[in-house]
Amino acid sequence: MTKKYAFWVEAAAWAATCVATLLLLAKLIAWWLTGSVSVLASFVDSLLDLLASVTNLLVVRYAVQPADSEHSFGHGKAESLAALAQSTFIIGSASFLLLSGLERLFKPVPIAAPELGIMVSVGATVITLGLVLFQKWVIRKTASPAIAADALHYQSDLLMNVAIIIALGLSWYGWTQADAWFAIAISLFILSQALKMAYEAIQSLLDRQLPLEEQEKIAVLSSSVVGVHGIHQLRTRQAGMTKFIQLHIELDDELPLVDAHTIADEVEDRLLVAFPGADVIIHQDPKSVVPKEAKA
């Protein structure tokens, strides 16, 4: 776990927490003054965002700690746990929003001071856009699943804020049900995204293999080293930013142990160039035992 990774992941988590706190206060005031169910939904979403971001911050601070005697593979899986927890927060938020929208659809209520709600939503959109752009930049640098999950919150918020602006504008001109319809549409979109995020987090916790193209790259790089006749039993996974790669390389039966070790080091070096920071374990097999291992 590199210091740069830890710095940027923690910075993104702190930024999300500060933004969530600011938006929560602004939306609480806007809902109190307007009575809009869309603004209420946005407030509840921001409340859950704040809880999720605080949870994310605490988990990320733990996840970036280096490996220790009790966790020799590091703490990277804590990020996937955070992503799963956040998806649960989002599903709860979206469900509340859906129920509120359905209730308001059948019991429309005129919105007070829609212009105030519009002003708050415009401000929230600008602030949230800045945060999302920063998070996207951090994700490109780190590939952190926890920050990717947090970014989903705020991308959903962007959509929600734009929808609220439109809904309040339509309500201003007399279409009172617009508020409810937009709340329902937003909730369904958020639910679909949250379910996808939960699935990805669960797959990571279950040690899903790296993507097929990365496995093929590992095989090509390993087999390209002089002295390697092939590879087998390739196993991969990822926890946080760390990729774990285990494989067996096939070598000449009579090869001296020192030479076998040198070849294995060359394979490891090539893999680390392609996958910086990876944890690589290489087992050296004589060619003659490969058929027996294949039958095992």
UniProtKB/TrEMBL annotation:
An example molecular function term from Gene Ontology annotations: ferrous iron transmembrane transporter activity
Recorded superkingdom: Bacteria
Domain spans labelled Cation efflux protein cytoplasmic: 211-286
Descriptive protein name: Cation-efflux pump FieF
Compartments where located: Cell membrane
Topology of the protein relative to the lipid bilayer: Multi-pass membrane protein
Protein family (similarity comment): Belongs to the cation diffusion facilitator (CDF) transporter (TC 2.A.4) family. FieF subfamily.
Keyword Ion transport assigned: yes
Annotated catalysed reactions: Fe(2+)(in) + H(+)(out) = Fe(2+)(out) + H(+)(in); Cd(2+)(in) + H(+)(out) = Cd(2+)(out) + H(+)(in); Zn(2+)(in) + H(+)(out) = Zn(2+)(out) + H(+)(in)
Keywords linked to the UniProt accession: Cell membrane, Ion transport, Iron, Iron transport, Membrane, Transmembrane, Transmembrane helix, Transport, Zinc, Zinc transport
TM region positions: 12-33, 39-60, 81-99, 111-134, 158-175, 181-199
